[in-house]
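Sequence and structure are no longer studied apart. As an example, we show below a sequence and the tokens encoding its fold:
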Amino acid sequence: MNRADYREQIDAACRLLEARLAEDVPLEEVAAAAYLSPFHFHRLFRGLTGETVGAYVRRLRLERAAHRLTQSDDDILVIALDVGYGSHEAFSRAFQRQFGTNPSVFRKEKIAMTTTSTTITNEPINVRIETRPACTVAAVRHVGPYNDVGDAWGTLMKWGWTKMMFGNPETFGLCYDDPDVTPAEKLRYDACMVVKPGTKVKDGIQLFELPAGTFAVTAHHGTYDSLGNTYGRLFGHIAQHKIDGRQYQLGDPPSREVYMNDPRKTKPEDLVTEIWMPVTAA
């Protein structure tokens, strides 16, 4: 078995951990998702991710909490419990170790930074609500800076080009992390193509189920490097305005990015990207 095969197995285990982040999933179950014994899995996981399983889960929980702290007005204890901590004190200690400050100070500082960015958060923006049923996707995972996802798309499209020729399958990127919170080298992204359940995929491509969801959707015009500005405006709109007559609040990532034109044939300033952010009714 080569390194690419092992990477795919570890990615499968990561998806299980991400889907059940608030749970303490037994090591045996996580290892089984990677088709490895617990002994080999633990060492391989650390070798390929640079983190132990426990450290990986703690980091993702705290990064999700950081997202909730700045994008919702939920009580800190509620957030702590939702990401798997049993008390405010335990959560605060872990958060302090990860981010160098306590949750309440982090929230105040991030909100203050956002409210001073009036050119980003207060510009008019068109937002609509979309719902999507559960679906099966073929995906290639990228871990690293978001502007380096081209290889993941290349691998996916090399496999799926016949599906593109003889049909029009839905494609999008899944963005799991906030680049203002997560180190660039640990950002997670999936290049995805919607396929039929049971589709056979080759090595390097994973098949998994995405749950149904409700999304606030807006269009970003321009380079991918400036997507963060539109994300900020979308977050501000969701927090301050009703959409289609209802109030919504941000849900947990991943967000979806739908690329409306081909970057190989389009000038960077003419690119159009739809951002689909999960939301729930307030």
